[in-house]
Design goal:
Distance between the termini: 32 Å
Strand content: 15-25%
Strand order of the largest sheet: 1-2-6-5-3-4
Number of strands: 6
CATH topology: Oxidized Rhodanese, domain 1
CATH architecture: 3-Layer(aba) Sandwich
Number of helices: 6
Largest sheet: 6 strands, mixed
CATH class: Alpha Beta
Order of helices and strands: HEEHEHEHEHEH
Radius of gyration: 13 Å
Structural class: alpha/beta
Shape: globular
Length: 118
């Protein structure tokens, strides 16, 4: 069984863990990937990770009420700032295995990982 990205993530003071773009890509079939950017960014120049779910930052807390608080969640944005804020909010709401993709889609693209733009 593949190891969990959460177990290898870098712990933050806010209670979530930072994971690399490569770790997020590798976990895409077993971990909930939540992209907190706006719809135009999701399909824009930087694209998005296949299988990720678009949940703009302003709607994360309202939408999270139906999510499993014990499941692994990786949050994604353009640079890692908005997803970090979302990760912190989810930890405060009781989510246990929250991760932020460090560097966001800028770092993901720089790593030459596959993207979707539609």
């Amino acid at each position: 069984m593949p190891s969990s990205p959460f177990e290898h993530g870098h712990p933050t003071l806010a209670g979530y863990r930072d994971v690399s773009p490569a770790a997020a890509y590798a976990a895409r079939s077993t971990t909930r990937l939540v992209d907190v950017r706006e719809p135009d960014e999701f399909v824009g120049e930087l694209g998005h990770i296949a299988g990720s779910e678009l949940v703009p930052l302003s709607t994360v807390m309202a939408r999270s009420h139906t999510w499993d608080r014990d499941a692994e969640i990786i949050l994604v944005c353009r640079s890692g700032a908005r997803s970090g804020r979302a990760a912190e909010a989810l930890v405060r709401a009781g989510f246990q295995r929250v991760m932020n993709m460090a560097g966001g889609m800028l770092a993901y693209n720089a790593a030459h990982l596959p993207v979707e733009r539609a």
